[in-house]
Amino acid sequence: MDGIQELKAKYLAEVADAGDESAIESVRLAAVGKKGEVSLKMRELGKMTPEERQVAGPQLNALKNEINSAIMARKASLADSALEERLRSEWLDVSQPARPSQQGTIHPISQVTEEVIAIFADLGYSVAEGPQIENDFYNFDALNIPPEHPARQEFDTFYMHRDEGDDRPPHVLRTHTSPVQIRHMEKHGAPCRIIAPGRVYRSDYDQTHTPMFHQVEGLAIDKDISMANLKWTLEEFCRAFFEVDNVELKFRASHFPFTEPSAEVDIKCSWAGGQLKIGEGDDWMEILGSGMVHPKVLTAAGVDPSEYQGFAFGMGIDRLAMLKYGIPDLRAFFDSDLRWLRHYGFASLDMPNMHGGISR
Ligand code: PHE
Description:
Layout lengths: L3 H14 L3 H12 L4 H7 L6 H40 L18 H15 L3 E2 L5 E2 L1 H4 L11 H4 L17 E2 L5 H10 L3 E10 L10 E11 L4 H16 L6 E8 L2 E14 L2 E4 L4 E11 L1 H6 L8 E8 H9 L12 H7 L16
Parallel strand pairs: 1-4
Antiparallel strand pairs: 2-3, 4-5, 5-10, 6-7, 7-8, 7-9, 9-10
Helix pairs in contact: 1-4, 2-4, 3-4, 5-11
């Protein structure tokens, strides 16, 4: 058949020249597509004599196959070079150091809470918790603060809203962690040794007061607990927490409705050049309230005061953090200022452990 060699040469050359997928596709349509040149020639087979057809048929078929395989090979080689080109341009240097990522810090309050927990855990105390929204039984009555008691005013309590016509006494945001004492004894009875760290709320705001702050309550109840045990425990705690051996504490007679006798505790310190140092000088700084749990409180919590007695104390965690880490303004604790957090925050791996605050 005429022209087969020419067709072959022409289309194989076009396939070789095609620079991308769409060029190949146009060559394919022109050659072996429905109306392509080779296809049209195949249609002519019908008009031939059987002898002619026997020669031309296989030739045309071979041509069609040849062009098709050339197209496939060209496609594959184009894909290969595209891949090579990508590999050349999109390489990645896996040995490059990673970009620095922003790291958060542990808030001083979280750090100090963990330190306090670690020290008391070492002394055999476990952690107890209670709700921040309390009812007035746990926050006041059970702690020997009846409704007419002046201490209710002193606390600057936040009261929750009650619906109109609902005459139950309002819930309050707990003003101290002492209600956890009651909840714990009610549930677990005596003896017990717990600390209860957490948020408390009072309507007050200045350099040393914020409406939300943190306390840690301590409670130890057993059959032979005295004020001497309280004194030793608090001294031991302060030595470990402030990391000084010669801590001196002064127990100053005071009054709390829920303890009898009651004592406020001052720690000996010096203020030299605006810097506070614990364990030296002759200034005194109040750090906590404490006392022997009032028999009425034990009774309210279901513990028999003729059998059991014990001590309780409550201290401000924020205050402890300010003293230990020299932070002058309490309000900054809750401003979420990143510069402040980076300056006073702790690295995440700086985790306190049993020895964290006891570097002796
Ligand atoms: N709850 C007291 C306060 O918030 C602190 C305290 C706790 C005092 C336990 C004595 C015993 O001021």
